[in-house]
Amino acid sequence: MRIHIVLTGRADPGGDQFPGQLELPEDSHVSDAVAAIKDSLPEGESLPKSCLLAVAGRHLGTLDQHENRLLADGQELLLIAPMAGG
């Protein structure tokens, strides 16, 4: 199945190396997608553990601690990197 990946906020995990979509086996969960994203990043690059995750408009938690729901073909996994400023 194909999952669309969207990254927003202030994060630079290797620029063009960040996947816009993932091919995952059927019955994959959010943790499978997160692992695939981490594996696709260049060596030494990472996303902040405090990135928020959402699927189908539902907040699931952070990159580090999230609800591990089942994904469906064509869904969008949104990663919201933390922002600072004032």
Features:
86 residues; alpha+beta; Ubiquitin-like (UB roll); 5-stranded mixed β-sheet; 5 strands; 13% helix; 28% strand
Can you give me a brief rundown of this structure?
By secondary structure, this protein is α+β, with helices and mostly antiparallel strands. About 15% of the residues lie in helices and about 30% in strands. It has one helix spanning about 30-40, and strands at about 1-10, 20-25, 50-55, 60, 75-80.
How would you describe this structure to a colleague?
With 86 residues, the protein is α+β, with helices and mostly antiparallel strands. It has a single domain, classed as Roll (Ubiquitin-like (UB roll)). Helices cover 13% and strands 28% of the residues. The chain contains 1 helix and 5 strands. It has one helix at 30-40; strands spanning 2-8, 21-23, 52-55, 58-62, 76-80. A 5-stranded mixed beta sheet has the order 2-1-5-3-4, with helices on one face. A hairpin with a 2-residue loop joins strand 3 (52-55) and strand 4 (58-62). The chain is globular, with a radius of gyration of 12 Å. The termini are far apart. The model has no long low-confidence stretch (mean pLDDT 86).
Poorly predicted sequence stretches spanning 5 or more consecutive residues: none
Proportion of residues in extended strands:
25-35%
CATH topology: Ubiquitin-like (UB roll)
Radius of gyration, Cα only, in angstroms?
12 Å
Overall domain count = 1
List the helices and strands and how they pair.
Blueprint: E1 2-8, E2 21-23, H1 30-40, E3 52-55, E4 58-62, E5 76-80
Parallel strand pairs: 1-5
Antiparallel strand pairs: 1-2, 3-4, 3-5
